[in-house]
Amino acid sequence: MRRIFIFVLAFLLLFSTIGFAGKPIVKIAFIGPLTGPAAFQGLGGRNAFKLAIMEAKKQNLPFKLVPVILDDQSDPTVAVNAALKVCSDKRVLVSISHWNSPCALATIDTFHRYGLATIVWGAVHPGITQKGYKEVSRIPTPLTFQNRFAAKFLTNLGYKRFAVIYETSDYGKGHKDVFTKAIKELGGEIVSEDGIVAGERNFQPILTKIKAKNPDVVYYGGYSPEAALIVTQMKSVGLNAQFVGISGISDAKFIKLAKENAEGTIGFVDSPPMDKLPKGKEFMEKYKKAHFKEDIAPYSPHAYDATWIAIEALKRAYPKLNRKNVVKEIRNTKDYDGVLGKISFDENGQSNIVTIVARVVQDGKWVLWEDSEYAKGIRKLVPPKK
Q1: Residue 72's closest CA among 95, 39, 47, 40?
Q2: pLDDT (tens digit per residue) in 229-245
Q3: In Å, how far from its chain's centre is CA 12?
Q4: How many whole angstroms separate alpha carbon 145 and alpha carbon 270?
Q5: Which residues make beta-bridge pairs with 112?
Q6: What is the model's pTM?
Q7: What is the mean pLDDT of the chain?
Q8: How far apart are the C-alpha atoms of 110 and 108, rounded to whole Å?
Q9: CA 323 to CA 90: how far, in whole Å?
Q10: What is the pLDDT of residues 203-212, one digit of tens each?
Q11: Which residues does 202 contact at the CB level (< 8 Å), separation at least 6?
């Protein structure tokens, strides 16, 4: 009886090591903000990750795919701990990581040190792919493109005087630096620059000071919670200027928080409406059929494409499933046919995808600029000062 028990125990240990039906176990991680102020973005990304995993499991993969999902809370310290956790698990061969730029910037050294491939699915700071780490690749367009596009768009509307408010994180400062430089190059004037800390609630002193500068535009480089307070308090202090934000505010949460004060806000984002993406309608149908509780978020397609790129890299790496080969195969991705288009990576790990669009809040929804009544002249933005 003792021999039988030992034999069964040994068999179970062997089975757990090898995996289901003799297939090796391969873990794939997702890290994003599942709680906290950016949870809407993270949950939408997580669901897209899960959707890709569910689809892949229907294939006859030569390995058992096991997802590992961790919350970074949009906090760099928490993000580093999450990265260390996945890096320390030798069966994790790739991680789909981070919506938040400070989180991504905080973890890339860890992924490099452990030789673990990470595909950044939402963070846009240019520094993420500038260290030359072969382990680090990214799907979304860097914020440099977003802000140059924004500067040209706004000056083409006749705006010349800009007040800039930015979050004093790497993300906010990165947006501010590129935007202010682009505005000056286009002949515009930066009348003020004010840094704020995430979580601040009273912006009336800053806005009162800005009001005296008489700007055409108030530009905000940060996230939705503070943006909603700023646009609301602009009305309170009588600051009549066009409010503009970047990808960090271009979500449903901004509209929910700002309510009627969101109307007419212009936002720039590297995620066009789903029905404008090459495979957007197909992705929406798949997402709907999966019955997730949360809606699609702006960067859900990026997380979905990142996950499938990782899975295809794992398939090409088989049977030599190790971190070094997976890193190599991800970088070898060429014209992956994704929701966002045909995706390849350059020598720094940056994708070729450039999908910047302008949107405006109209009747409680983000509307593509060219489809809006503002673009057609039916509704009016705050006009430039004469």
Answers
A1: 39
A2: 999 999 999 999 999 99
A3: 41
A4: 9
A5: none
A6: 0.86
A7: 94
A8: 5
A9: 9
A10: 999 999 999 9
A11: 233
